[in-house]
Amino acid sequence: DSGVTQTPKHLITATGQRVTLRCSPRSGDLSVYWYQQSLDQGLQFLIHYYNGEERAKGNILERFSAQQFPDLHSELNLSSLELGDSALYFCASSVGPDFNTEAFFGQGTRLTVV
Amino acid sequence: SQKIEQNSEALNIQEGKTATLTCNYTNYSPAYLQWYRQDPGRGPVFLLLIRENEKEKRKERLKVTFDTTLKQSLFHITASQPADSATYLCALGGYNAGNMLTFGGGTRLMVKP
Asked: Of A25, A1, A83, which Cα lies nearest the Cα of B45?
């Protein structure tokens, strides 16, 4: 158990809908990172928050947004969903503002868009 | 463009042998490199981190080398076991990699008894 909690584990929704994925980092970790992993692509970095502030953005679609709350949990919002958004979404956490220490990944949320 | 390459073909080895996985990168100047293990449908699990000023790092049966001149890292598992079968991912971070950890596509390792 990495200590990173992601909910829900599975999500099935229709095209055009909006969903929210939730991540609770390990106790004491201030950074949260979101990654997308689809079958034909590796882990793609989406966004990084450190202590409530956005630190880095990857190839995140405009339909996607995220935030980190004062209690350090994070939410990833996906809207106007398309079939191609079906993927595993992982969050990871680390102590500091970068990956210069080990990162802990959650078990992911499997999103299926039908 | 920046690229991280791992052998996309599965590596099949016999139990007890040493598995060696390769990670090559271009147009990066990483401050550190990490290796992760990922089992199907599960999140990556951190294995080792090596910094740019370190040539080699070991942890139990694992060894990582980091050659910033060749832009390559090698990951070794000695005395491999069937339980080592998984996908292994390398990832780069720091400097021009930004405040993110960028992953290679991973290499699937199959250890046969």
From this structure: A1
- For residue B57, what are the contacts with CB-CB under 8 A and spacing of at least 6? B48, B49, B50, B63, B64, B66
**Partner-chain contact A98 B103, CB within 8 Å:** no
Asked if B45 lies within 8 A of A101 by C-beta distance, the reply is: no
Distance from C-alpha of B85 to C-alpha of B41, rounded to nearest angstrom? 14
Q: What is the pLDDT along chain B (113 residues), one digit of tens a residue?
A: 778 999 888 999 999 999 999 999 988 888 889 999 999 989 999 999 999 899 999 999 999 999 999 999 999 999 999 999 999 999 988 765 566 788 999 999 999 99
Residue type, B18: T
Interface probe, candidates B34, B39, B57, B101, chain A, greatest A C-beta count within 10 A: B101
Question: Per the CB < 8 Å rule, is A56 touching B98?
Answer: yes
Which chain B residues contact residue A109 at CB under 8 A? none
In B, which residues are within 8 Å of A48 by CB distance? 99-100
End-to-end, the C-alpha distance of chain A in Å comes to 31
User: Which residues of chain B neighbour A95 with C-beta distances below 8 Å?
Assistant: none
Question: Rounded distance, CA B90 to CA B20, Å?
Answer: 13
